[in-house]
Amino acid sequence: MLESAIPRDGLNLKVSARHTVPALHTLFNSVELAAAVMPFGRNAEIYGEDEPADNVYEVVRGAVRTYCVLCDGRRQVQAFYFPGDVFGLEFGPRHSCSAEAIDRSQVAIVKRSLLLGAAERDLTVAQQLWRATAIELARAQGHSLLLIKSAHERVAAFLLDMAERLDADGVIDLPMSRQDIADNLGLTIETVSRTLSSLEDVAAISLPAARHIVLRNRSALRRINA
Amino acid sequence: MLESAIPRDGLNLKVSARHTVPALHTLFNSVELAAAVMPFGRNAEIYGEDEPADNVYEVVRGAVRTYCVLCDGRRQVQAFYFPGDVFGLEFGPRHSCSAEAIDRSQVAIVKRSLLLGAAERDLTVAQQLWRATAIELARAQGHSLLLIKSAHERVAAFLLDMAERLDADGVIDLPMSRQDIADNLGLTIETVSRTLSSLEDVAAISLPAARHIVLRNRSALRRINA
DNA sequence: CGTCTTCTTGAGCCACTTCAAGGTAAGTGG
DNA sequence: CCACTTACCTTGAAGTGGCTCAAGAAGACG
After folding, report:
1. Mean pLDDT, residues A213-219 taken together
2. What pTM was estimated for this model as a whole?
3. Quick one: which of B72, B126, B197, B214 has the fewest CB in 10 Å?
4. Candidates B56, B144, B223, partner chain A, best to mutate (most A CBs within 10 A)
């Protein structure tokens, strides 16, 4: 139903079979919903930190990053979202971080008030809201665990995560820049680049192009990940 | 109601006025509940990682830490909980990390199934479950933001957080060891110790005893925290 | 083809870690 | 009450992983 509403363009990113967060149509399977699908250009802001959290979003095509900026300009990318992933769901009234399209993307948008209303009438919707938040919590906890690891471990973990979410037979097509990866892993772009090169040196991956990574040895990556 | 069920002993830790997570009696204000209060000794395990998450807990007196251990033994303390704080609430069937009493503590315990049942009958309980998870999510996001900062920033942030939660007029009585703090902040105990000493040198704090910290200049700490 | 952005690589540096020693405080048994 | 033990904390000195600064290579795009 969501699918049929989506205009196609040339982006052609794959839709992940495994959802990080229950898809909106799961959230809505017993409710009539009005989901608008909106296009966003490369680096376009979807919402900003502290803005009212009036909507909930699902990536239909493309990729989205959420991030916080410290007062001195350091940026932390909290998460990446791909087709099927839900983001921007808050309990409180305001967004805790900003969201931007990484690439040209299509995003389904539904009014939060509609969801909350549905949750009041339908128990399973209420449960899905809880579930979506719980999955985000698990992600955030995993992210903080990541940040105590070494650069090699962080990059290996990142690659394994991306492989699971974007995989086409061991080949990863990254939509995001090295800067995005670095800000997600709490490293510098130089360290990310060097670490990828060193993983290529030990034949764990190969790098036919900067954003095109082939996993050559997943168990080696898992071993590095600790 | 919970209060009256609590046997007193000699610990005499203060009960924080400000709750990190809605207290169980908030969660239960429209439900009859059977909350047992159990004592735990210093370093006693309350639950272990991957154990079935059959209960939800509230610190009544004392202090609790939750933590994960990596395969090579590195430990990350995810959070500290003080009187009034709820912990161990999971959406999934198993605990994502272990919980231990830091000190001799009293912990109120309720069956998860009771809560879930109540949530099915009572919309506000369902909302409180969601809310508690959302607050944990905010905490986890804050924690990962902390971990990209410098040692000085992390320690300053830790002190400000503890001051807010344990404060008795600018004096902090820490229940946890330097190792706990280090594992929470992603640093070594030596770095934590050195950083505290250096904060004392610049007159931001004073250290009459290792676990007794006096905030001398909060705005300096806030400035350091970035 | 030139320009701009992004990515890679190198060299030196610094914040934090590691390793090591000593100090302090609380508990325990004599 | 005091020696002894043990756990915890602090401080120093040296090492190192990741950062900073800098230059060049590789794509992307008009």
Report:
1. 97
2. 0.91
3. B72
4. B144
